[in-house]
Amino acid sequence: MSESEKKPLLGTSDEEEDKLTGCGKTLCCNPFRFLHRYLILIIMCFLSFGSYFCYDNPAALQDTMIKDLKISESTFMGFYSWYSWPNVILCFFGGFLIDKTFGVRLGAIIFSLFVTAGQVVFALGALINNVWLMDVGRFIFGIGGESLAVAQNTYAVKWFQGRELNMVFGLQLSFSRVGSTVNMNIMQPIYKFVSNSGHKGYECLGIVLFIGGIICILSLICALALGYFDKRADRILHRKQLTSEETIRITDVKDFPATMWLLCIICVMYYVAVFPFIGLGLLFFEMKWDFDPSLANNVNSLVYIISAVASPVFGFLIDKTGRNVFWVILGTTVTIGCHALLAFTFVNPYVAMITMGFSYSVLASALWPIAAQIVPNNQLGTAYGIMQAIQNLGLAVVAIIAGAIVDSKGYLVLEVFFLVCLCVALIAAVLLYLLDASRGGKLNMSAKLRQIMKEEADREKEKEEKKPL
Predict the structure, then answer these.
(1) In the beta sheet, which residues pair with residue 446?
(2) Could you read off the pLDDT of 149-181 as tens digits, one per residue?
């Protein structure tokens, strides 16, 4: 057994560990052990798998959905807008409720139920050719989807802060992208299989979406398992509960520093140039490069495929090097180059999409852990809720704008619009670097220096605790 596996998670004694009996003493079930945290990490990664799989069901079925339902591009992009609109407000309150009322365990279970229910309603709407009901389904799905991601991020910080947090965020992103990639590559074959069995048009579409909804149950099972293991670990490891003085109040949000709001701007302006683009990318590759739907789908899913592999690798690299803000600036700059290639050249789109997959992995692995360095742990659910709420406001608005631009102006103007958004993200990232540098450079600190400062802080804390009252 390695030394890391022998070391208690929270510095608890060997005597306390010896009190465990039965399966509780095994490496995977013993919360004092290294391997137990990685069992939790696996479950944590699958928590949002179903949500991300179903989020991009419309993108994977874009051409067939428009044909079967007889809708415009703007109406089609409305499925993404209706997902995002509830999260403009509810995602923030979801994070606040995790911090203040539900706790992360109950919150994850509730939001997983919303994800499953929303996909069922969305599929039912397609089955009866009712676009309005499909919008309602995406709205319900959205209530759970982004708040579930907030719960996942909160779990990650709770279990891995101070250890491998960047890698954990990268691995979570990787599994999320695996869900999206699997969706992009199997929904069309499933549609063809169902269609060949005798079901046609919107009836076929509804059945396919119901089949996709089965994956959402995975999120619910993972939420229940995480709740069990987390409650068990709290009891065994004697994790302290927040006192009334430590719990967050809604008014505390106004005291978040400027760096937190710059982080939100980067988040929204970067992601609006990725997700809406992928949502509309299928026809873009078919029209500009004359790809057939299957090949266009493969190209369109490359960002997800690459990020599924690259995110944990870059997360590990960032854990070892630190300097998160530098990586954010680099990821944004490279993505600008990728969109410029797609907009102004006829270079094979595989080049731009593969590169975008790497740059997206870098940015996501570096960006989200920064919040844990800005706000206290008892406010993290709220902080991540705010980030996702602002992100979804941008996604909802841009989904409408992007669909309208494609309908009226075409894909070249759409790409120019995405380039403008990315330039705003880059300016915000540079401002974050400058503001952080003026305050000591904590957010862009090297991993080695960060570890030295942490050890010094731990020694000071230990001295304070040993002082007589």
Answers:
(1) 322
(2) 878 888 887 877 766 777 787 788 777 777 877
Are 167 and 43 contacting, i.e. CB atoms less than 8 angstroms apart?
A: no
**CB-count burial class (<10 Å; 0-12, 13-18, 19+) for 196:** exposed
Q: What are phi and psi of 442, to 5 degrees?
A: -60, -40
Q: 27: closest CA among 66, 1, 59?
A: 1
| Listed residue (39, 30, 35, 37) closest to 5, CA to CA | 35
Residue 346, class by beta-carbon neighbours within 10 Å (0-12 exposed, 13-18 middle, 19+ buried)?
exposed
User: Do residues 86 and 139 make contact, with C-beta atoms less than 8 angstroms apart?
Assistant: yes
CA dist., res. 371 & res. 390, Å (int): 14
pLDDT score of 432 more than 70: yes
Q: Express each pLDDT in 109-152 by its tens digit.
A: 888 899 999 999 999 988 888 888 988 999 889 888 877 887 88
Joined tokens for residue 67 = 């044909």
Taking the C-alpha atoms of residue 193 and residue 40, their distance in angstroms, rounded to an integer, is 36
Amino acid found at 392: N
pLDDT digits (tens, 9 = 90+) for 177-233: 778 778 878 888 888 888 887 777 788 888 888 888 888 888 888 889 888 888 887
Question: What ranges do the domains of the chain cover?
Answer: 38-235+257-455
Distance CA(396)–CA(133), nearest Å, equals: 18
DSSP 106-155: HHHHHHHHHHHHHHHHHHHHHHTT-HHHHHHHHHHHHHHHHHHHHHHHHH
Q: Which residues contact 296 (CB under 8 A, 6 or more apart)?
A: 281, 282, 283, 285, 286
Half-sphere exposure of 60 (CA within 13 A, CB side): 27
Is the dihedral angle over the CA atoms 370, 154, 172, 317 positive or is it negative?
A: positive
Instruction: Please give the share of the chain, as a percent, with pLDDT higher than 70.
Output: 83
Query: C-alpha distances in angstroms, 99 versus 153, 170, 197, 384?
Result: 12, 23, 49, 11
Residue 122's nearest CA partner among 7, 213, 254 is 213
State the CATH class of domain 38-235+257-455: mainly alpha
Convert the pLDDT of each residue in 51-110 to its tens digit.
888 888 888 888 888 888 888 877 887 888 788 777 677 766 666 677 666 778 888 888
Q: Could you give the CA distance from residue 302 to residue 283 in angstroms, rounded to a whole number?
A: 15
Mean confidence (pLDDT) of the chain = 80
Contacts of 313 (CB under 8 A, 6+ apart): 170, 361
**What is the rounded distance in angstroms from the CA atom of residue 396 to the CA atom of residue 121?**
20
Strand, helix or coil for residue 70:
coil
